[in-house]
Amino acid sequence: MFTNLTHPPSPSPQQVVGQCLRTHPRHPTTCPPGPSGTPAAANGSNEVMVNFDPDPADLALSSVPGQEAFDPRRHRFSDEELKPQPMIKKARKMLVPNEQKDDKYWSRRVKNNEAAKRSRDARRLKENQISVRAAFLERENGVLRQEVADMRKELGRCRNIINKYESRHGDL
User: Fold this and answer.
1) What is the pLDDT of residues 85-122, one digit of tens each?
2) Pick from 3, 8, 4: which is nearest to 148 by CA?
3) Which of 126, 138, 121 lies closest to 54, judged by CA?
4) How many domains does the chain have?
5) Cα gap 140→129, rounded to integer Å
6) Which residues does the annotated region (Disordered) include (predicted)?
7) Beta strands in 7-150 (DSSP E)
8) Of 54, 57, 55, whose CA–CA distance to 73 is shortest?
9) Model-level pTM?
10) For residue 69, is it within any domain?
11) Is 67 part of any domain?
């Protein structure tokens, strides 16, 4: 599946003096056609297409049942959510004698066990979401790195064309 992600707009032709960059279809340049494999070059936009199909089991483990499925392409974690949590030492267990285990004790134990289960489930869900999002971002990073490498090659070709032109016809 492909997703669109926007990155900053490219500089206008007026800003790029002495360099040959493909900026927009309405502003043609003397550059040769760039790599057709780059999505931005293919559709003339500033969008990156990332092929990312997470394992359905991972998505199921990252989604809350009964709610919308977790989408690693759109979900953004806040800085607070990604902060490492401090290690809290557990309190020493205090054994309660059997003669003190009344109905109030057992109701509190049941309530505490349910709260502990909810807390573990919430933590596991968040960890799964972060790992799926990290996998998506790694894939996107690879695509963007490849696009940058292709653009650098294209820039080198454009500069060579300009240098050849300037050597034959003088400075621009």
Assistant:
1) 888 888 888 888 888 899 999 999 999 999 999 999 99
2) 8
3) 138
4) 1
5) 16
6) 24-43
7) 47-49
8) 54
9) 0.58
10) yes
11) yes
